[in-house]
Amino acid sequence: MFVLAEMKDVIRVTPDHFHQSLTESITTLLNRKLANKVVLDVGLCIALFDIMHIGHSYIFPGDGSSHTEVKFRYIVFRPLIEEILIGKIRSCSRDGVQVTLGFFDDILIPVNALQHPSRFDETDQAWVWEYGAKSGEKHDLFMDSGEPIRFRVTSETFEESLPSGPPSSDCAVQPLAPYRIVGGINEPGLGLLSWWEQPDGDDDEDEDNEVEVLDA
Q1: CA distance 109 to 131
Q2: Which end of the chain is more exposed for a tag (fewer CB within 10 A), N or C?
Q3: What is the average per-residue pLDDT within 85-101?
Q4: Alpha-carbon distances of 22 from 6, 12, 19, 87, 178, rounded to whole Å
Q5: What pLDDT is attached to residue 181?
Q6: 37-50 tens-digit pLDDT
Q7: Structural domains in the chain, sorted by start
Q8: What is the Cα–Cα distance from 11 to 51, expressed in whole angstroms?
Q9: Is 0.85 topped by the overall pTM?
Q10: DSSP 3-state assignment of 53?
Q11: How do strand 96-100 and strand 84-93 relate by DSSP bridges?
């Protein structure tokens, strides 16, 4: 889920950071610049891991700041395709189930990746897995907001952020998230954790049965 991304950048250290050591000021400025930001084709930056190399610092005419080339490693959120994660349902709509990890919200489980058959309940605004519908003994399993859910990462999309123009009288277009994940739960073991939990007492009962067989 988390990886180390090797990067390099030129950090501008302003005079108000000169009281710190160069390493401390670079650490502060790198985290201020990258933390909780999405880097195209890299992922969501979390925190600086370490600084691998600090180059020479330069001060240019007319600028009292120092400019230093830095090579570093950053902790980045970018799960592998096919990786299984556990999050919580944020909301449901006709497009599917929105999932949050707490620090990352742009996760969608589309309709075609839900357990089959499923239907959308307009009253509760929740998707419902019609478990056992084929056998005739149907049980409605609701996917309510806030429920823990286990899903498999199936794809990811990066969107390059472009400068927005002046506001117009036309209907505002919702900007796309810079990094989005698509998941799926249409296989055994995936979906709400409560679907697959063993009822309390079953383990003890199985152990008792095993002992009886061995003693016989």
Answers
A1: 18
A2: C
A3: 96
A4: 20, 11, 9, 39, 32
A5: 97
A6: 999 999 999 999 99
A7: 2-77 (3.30.1490.120), 84-162+175-199 (2.40.50.140)
A8: 12
A9: no
A10: strand
A11: antiparallel
